[in-house]
Amino acid sequence: MRTRRPTPMSKEAPGATATTLVIIPTYNELENLPLIVDRVRTATPEVDVLIVDDNSPDGTGDRADELAAADDHIHVLHRTEKDGLFAAYLAGFRWGLDRDYSNLCEMDADGSHAPEQLHLLLAEIDNGADLVIGSRYIPGGKVVNWPKDRWVLSKGGNIYISLALGTGLSDMTAGYRVFRREVLEALPMDELSKAGYIFQVEIAYRAVEMGFDVREVPITFTEREIGESKLDGSFVKDSLLEVTRWGLKHRATQAKELSKEIAGLVAYEYKHWRKRNDWF
């Protein structure tokens, strides 16, 4: 993966995981919330948790307040409306950046992202990565309790995305990831696409294009056992259409840059050829 990074940025020293914030968006996750928070606090007691609740009608926000009242490592951000996962994460990112956390983690509330594997992502951050993605589709990664057609759709979609954008990443739609704060500070969050769940792809793509060190580690993704999925089928169509547009633009930019390099090389060689042959 690319190693160039924007020069104005500096990294925290290795071992900075004590200033990690795990952001857990919620909407009607009353049963799942205490389970996932307990698992996070047990697996990684050094991290803080921010629950971002979108005014859940089932009482999830009240349950979050109870958890926070009992544990100083747990915080709650109440939002007044449900306007998408990206908006919830964006609010969580801003909350964490305002409070000087070094690393910010995305994690689902439904248990599909195992808190017991968070240490794998944090270890890569400590080893110098800027963004670490928990991947289902690299060796060692797997998916549990998905129907075959959903796995094929997700796997095939990620192959297409990787080829279209040329990132070399295997799971750009994955939502289990840890960012160094410098990545989030550098990304133009207000410009990111709101189509479906495409923001996960765009964030990874832009991070690679900006020269950040983006890595993947294998994780086990487990389909939720309690509650209903928030996904609908439209996100696949919206996401792939958007990626196709980015891919075409990316290839056009590459072709333009290559043409400039070739033209410069031809001009250079022609100039020196004239000198060698003493025409003028």
UniProtKB/TrEMBL annotation:
GO MF terms, alphabetically ordered: dolichyl-phosphate beta-D-mannosyltransferase activity
Residue intervals of the Glycosyltransferase 2-like domain: 22-186
GO CC, alphabetical: membrane
Entry EC number(s): 2.4.1.83
Top EC group: transferase
Alphabetical UniProt keywords: Glycosyltransferase, Transferase
Annotated GO biological process: glycolipid biosynthetic process
CDD domains the record matches: DPM1_like (cd06442)
Annotated catalysed reactions: a di-trans,poly-cis-dolichyl phosphate + GDP-alpha-D-mannose = a di-trans,poly-cis-dolichyl beta-D-mannosyl phosphate + GDP
Family: Belongs to the glycosyltransferase 2 family.
PANTHER family noted in UniProt: DOLICHOL-PHOSPHATE MANNOSYLTRANSFERASE SUBUNIT 1 (PTHR43398:SF1)
Protein name, entry field: dolichyl-phosphate beta-D-mannosyltransferase
Record organism: Corynebacterium efficiens (strain DSM 44549 / YS-314 / AJ 12310 / JCM 11189 / NBRC 100395)
Organism ancestry: Bacteria, Bacillati, Actinomycetota, Actinomycetes, Mycobacteriales
